[in-house]
Amino acid sequence: MKIRLFVTGGTFDKRYDPVSQTFVFSRTNVRRILTEGRCRLPVAVEVLTLKDSLDLTGDDFDLILDKCRAARESRVLVTIGTDRMVDVARLIDGQHGNKTVVLTGAMVPFTCQGSDASFNFGLALGAIQTLPAGVYIAMNGRIFTAAAVVKNRKLARFEPLPRPEPG
């Protein structure tokens, strides 16, 4: 089972630049994570963009959706910034062509101590091999469906959508 991996950037791929004293993009970290994690899965990596998710444009959203739909593989993994992760998951949901699509990212850059990038990435790789067709988010040790997840910005984590109270 070959997995298609689309990289879009996000905190997952940021690194600290001591000259500018800001977080910047220079390359993706996914190949390093795959190597360091001794991953033996066939993963085809394609970098679509390296941007903070808040900087993604409508054209970027269209590109991500088009690439997911056009992928020959039935298993598609997308790394993306957490601020737009739910939006992109919902965009793809229902338009994925009977594929299993999993989105993941990080709250702390892979290159920083205390990063959750490798943990979330490993969770996503495990999930994509076992989940049925649909669109999912793999974060914080949990798997969420695209329609039933929210990012809790105050607690910096993903949670199930609260269920409406009967009434």
What does this structure look like?
By secondary structure, this protein is an alpha/beta fold. 25% of the residues lie in helices and 30% in strands. The chain has four helices and ten strands. It has helices spanning 30-36, 58-70, 85-92, 117-130; strands spanning 3-9, 15-17, 22-24, 43-51, 75-79, 100-104, 134-139, 142-145, 149-152, 157-160. The mean pLDDT is 92.
Short description:
With 167 residues, this protein is of the alpha/beta class. It has helices at residues 30-36, 58-70, 85-92, 117-130, and strands spanning 3-9, 15-17, 22-24, 43-51, 75-79, 100-104, 134-139, 142-145, 149-152, 157-160.
Secondary-structure element string:
EEEHEHEHEHEEEE
Q: What structural class do helix, strand and pairing data support? A: alpha/beta
How many alpha or pi helices? Answer: 4
CATH superfamily: L-asparaginase, N-terminal domain
How many beta-strand runs?
10
Relative strand content: 25-35%
Tell me, rounded to a whole number, the average pLDDT: 92
Identify low-pLDDT runs: none
Strand order of the largest sheet: 4-1-5-6-7-8
By CATH, the architecture is named 3-Layer(aba) Sandwich
General shape: globular
How far is it from the N-terminal to the C-terminal residue, by CA? 46 Å
CATH class: Alpha Beta
Number of domains: 1
For the biggest sheet, the summary is: 6 strands, mixed
